[in-house]
UniProtKB/TrEMBL annotation:
Location of the Galactose-1-phosphate uridyl transferase N-terminal domain: 5-183
A biological-process GO annotation: galactose metabolic process
Name the UniProt record assigns to this protein: Galactose-1-phosphate uridyl transferase N-terminal domain-containing protein
Keywords: Carbohydrate metabolism, Nucleotidyltransferase, Transferase
Residues forming the catalytic site: 173 (tele-ump-histidine intermediate)
Pfam families: GalP_UDP_transf
Organism in which the protein naturally occurs: Candidatus Azambacteria bacterium RIFCSPLOWO2_01_FULL_46_26
Record-linked InterPro entries: ADP-glucose_phosphorylase, GalP_UDPtransf1, GalP_Utransf_N, HIT-like_sf
Length: 340
């Protein structure tokens, strides 16, 4: 009998394939052997240590201290939103296409903001419930503000944690970029969601959420309104996706109560990674319907968390097929068992 050395799994939404390398699969504890470089920049050199001289777009106070030992004063802000000093997108003429022989291009018009958290060395994975709620509240507030701007077609909120995840400043912060196009990865996800809905009159993500609830094998954490899972088609070891259980196309339209439940699911998921993999570098981002998304009611917003457990090499770069060296069922079982 021939023993399979790997599995090819196809994403239900995009149609993309990934490899689960069962023959060279690692046990969860094998990932603890990786050494994560976590240099913390001195406060005196940190551009986010003070808001002095910066244009503050939004600021939330650390109300009632939230269990932290902070005195109430003018410096007692918890999260502040400022323009990125070196933006990837900025002012310009909106959607004016230009041509150069065979090629088309246009100005990179949009907005690039940074959400800075007050504590210089407290990682997002260790925020308490109220603090995580404020993070999502700030995300929502800026999303609603920028979605009304001219030229803004899509808004991506993301968090890079650690140098392997692309964070060039160690001080905890998230970013928001508003762009005049729908990014390719999002467009593929939306197209797949639309295709599935047109064929079956069902939301593909709702179908997957219900399947995961029935199976239970890949569930990491759940509360009344949100589900955290290791997706069947995991692009990297210990990938996590967080879905609202009820169908919701747009992140920015979530209720105050949903923010609380979403914060709980995000906080617990990040803390399980922090403890279980000993503070790995990671990225997370929110995939949601484009702005003014009335025609995207088939979509289902969610959060994707991607720990940096591997480096892309020739096969991944040459094919676009990612290889995970642990089955998501095993990863979920391990993370599920982490006590918070």
């Amino acid at each position: 009998m021939i023993k399979n050395v790997s599995e090819l799994r196809q994403d239900l939404v995009s149609g993309d394939w990934v490899v689960i390398a069962t023959a060279r699969a690692k046990r969860p504890h094998d990932f603890l052997k990786r050494k994560h470089r976590r240099p913390v920049q001195p406060k005196k050199d940190c551009p986010f240590e003070t808001l002095k001289g910066k244009k503050v777009l939004l600021q939330y106070q650390h109300a009632d201290n939230f269990g932290r030992n902070n005195k109430k004063n003018e410096n007692n802000w918890f999260v502040a939103v400022i323009p990125n000093k070196y933006p990837a997108f900025g002012e310009g003429l909106c959607m004016v296409e230009r041509h150069e022989t065979l090629f088309n291009w246009m100005d990179g018009v949009g907005f690039h903001e940074v959400l800075v958290y007050r504590d210089h060395s407290l990682p997002l994975a260790l925020f308490n419930q109220k603090e995580t709620e404020l993070v999502l509240k700030a995300y929502q507030s800026r999303f609603l503000n920028l979605s009304e701007k001219d030229c803004v077609e899509y808004i991506l909120i993301f968090h890079n944690d650690g140098p392997e995840a692309g964070a060039t400043i160690s001080h905890p912060h998230s970013q928001l970029i508003a762009v005049p196009i729908i990014p390719p990865d999002v467009a593929r996800s939306i197209a797949g969601s639309k295709r599935y809905f047109e064929n079956r009159q069902e939301c593909v993500h709702c179908v997957m959420v219900n399947a995961e609830k029935s199976s239970g094998k890949r569930i990491i954490y759940e509360n009344e309104r949100f589900l955290s899972v290791a997706p069947f088609v995991s692009r990297t070891a210990f990938e996590i996706r967080i879905f609202p259980k009820n169908h919701q196309p747009s992140f920015e339209k979530i209720s105050h109560e949903d923010i609380s439940f979403a914060a709980d699911a995000l906080r617990i998921s990040l803390k399980k990674l922090y403890i279980g993999l000993k503070d790995p570098c990671y990225n997370f981002f929110i995939h949601t319907a484009p702005c003014r998304g009335e025609q995207y009611q088939h979509y289902h917003w969610h959060i994707e968390i991607l720990p940096k457990t591997a480096i892309w090499a020739g096969f991944e770069l040459g094919t676009g097929i990612e290889i995970a060296t642990i089955a998501p069922e095993t990863a979920a079982e391990y993370l599920r068992g982490i006590k918070i």
